[in-house]
Amino acid sequence: MVNDTIAELEKDIVKAHDGLKRELAKIRTGRAHPSILESVRVEIYGSSMPISQCASVNVPEARLLTVKPWDKTQLKAIEKAIVTSPLGLNPQSDGEMLRIPMPPLTAERRKELTKLVKKHGEDTKVAVRKARHDAKDMLDSLKKDGEISEDDLERAQKKVEEVVQKANSDVDATIARKDKDLLEV
To answer: Which one of 17, 57, 76, 99 is least enclosed by Cβ atoms within 10 Å?
Structure first.
């Protein structure tokens, strides 16, 4: 029962870390990366879909994305979706594909993005703390029901704290890497 509780805690922590990584991937660092366009939705064939479902996105150079639609008639719709997105990108069309140069980040924008990264990190830490709280509640109910002894409860709580400390240090390391990427000119 204790091992199940620890496993559940670790599973919740992995979910929180994955969510952090997804959010950080959306924050552009001045370098081109296909995940930058994940949040852009295109109106095609009467429905809204992500760019990745209607075009291939490639990174031929460090500061350039290319978007090649599978149906060339949809090039204008994809271009419009990118221009109207809050990403601040200006695609250039050659009739077959879009070339999207990544503009360099200003110092002010870098600071804003750093604050956003820290906010995402703090949100992840809140999720980890919630998972810790849930795990402790489960352990307390096991003790109350007489399924584990007082000593087992203390050992399990120490294990929970170790797992949470490691998770928080991993979050800090992930945030530090992203901050370094953002502040790198």
So the answer is: 76
